[in-house]
């Protein structure tokens, strides 16, 4: 079942006896488990009817015995198993999952990996409960996720601002949502988030950031690229070389992919690579400034400097700022 559907059903008090929340993205798991923990029972009911187990300190027999109890002075009881991936005897829950109590909500939080779908336990939960497969999002899916998150709070965001956040916050949804929540508290003058709001409240410059560097490199603006990389060197905590190399690796890899596409229109690129039209237009324009050979050379340069930034292939620890300058020089010449 989809994340949004589960939350909507919970809000409507449509409950199921077992919830298996598993997968690599903990944000979705935490949101659903947290909602059940906070909202299914009243504060008075929780005292006798809400039990939380931790996988490494529990066993399937104890969890099953608890789940089989009847609620006291309430219609439901809630049993939550956190860190269920550490529960050594998790297969022991299969008997309960085959015949669950309708008055119990058993929530199994199985993070960072998935339960084997061939097991009796998984099949029983699939039949009698709800399964959430919490998948990690790819980087090109993050801007749309940010837009959707803000829309739920009656805010919008400019394409450039969402790309800046994606570049610096990565794909960890919990981290992104925390930063967005801070922005929503801080931004009072408008309902649209812009690069200026990010600069003011998060500290990322709207003029000297990784997107601006990509624009400068894409258009081969040597002066502008050097300006930005010098700024990065003076702000190493906000602009570590590892972020620069990994982001540029994605940028140039996508350009290389465009060279091998049969349909190089914006629609064709969107279908193959995904991403916001705002970003894809710039990517297409940039790809025209680099040959296939040069792009392959640049990807090699980025790999080389990523290793150097980690102390490999250099005799002594080199200043990261100097490494970034040297790397950009080689990319542009």
State the end-to-end CA separation. 51 Å
Mind summarizing the main beta sheet? 5 strands, parallel
Strand order of the largest sheet: 2-3-4-1-5
Listing every helix as H and every strand as E from the N terminus to the C terminus, the arrangement reads HEHHEHEHEHEHEHHEHHHHHHHH
Give the full name of the CATH homologous superfamily of the largest domain.
Answer: P-loop containing nucleotide triphosphate hydrolases
Low-confidence runs (pLDDT<50, min 5 residues)? none
- DSSP helix count? 17
Roughly what percent helix? 55-70%
CATH class of the largest domain: Alpha Beta
Strand percentage lies at: 5-15%
The overall pLDDT, averaged over residues, is 93
- Which shape, going by the Cα principal axes? elongated
SS elements, strand count: 7
- Radius of gyration equals 25 Å
The domain tally reads 3
**Level-2 CATH architecture of the largest domain:** 3-Layer(aba) Sandwich
Quick summary:
The protein has 333 residues and is of the alpha/beta class. It contains 17 helices and seven strands.
Give your account of this protein's structure.
The chain is an alpha/beta fold. The chain has 3 domains: 3-134, Rossmann fold (3-Layer(aba) Sandwich); 139-201, Orthogonal Bundle (Helicase, Ruva Protein, domain 3), CATH 1.10.8.60; 210-332, Zinc Finger, Delta Prime, domain 3 (Up-down Bundle). It has 17 helices and 7 strands. The protein has helices at residues 3-11, 26-39, 43-49, 60-67, 94-98, 120-128, 142-152, 159-169, 173-186, 195-201, 210-218, 222-234, 241-259, 266-273, 277-287, 292-309, 320-332, and strands at residues 18-23, 50-54, 77-82, 104-111, 130-134, 156-157, 192-193. A 5-stranded parallel sheet has the order 2-3-4-1-5, sandwiched between helices. Strands 6-7 form a two-stranded parallel ribbon. Helix 13 (241-259) runs antiparallel to helix 16. The longest helix is centred in the last third of the chain and has 19 residues, at 241-259. The relative contact order is 0.09.
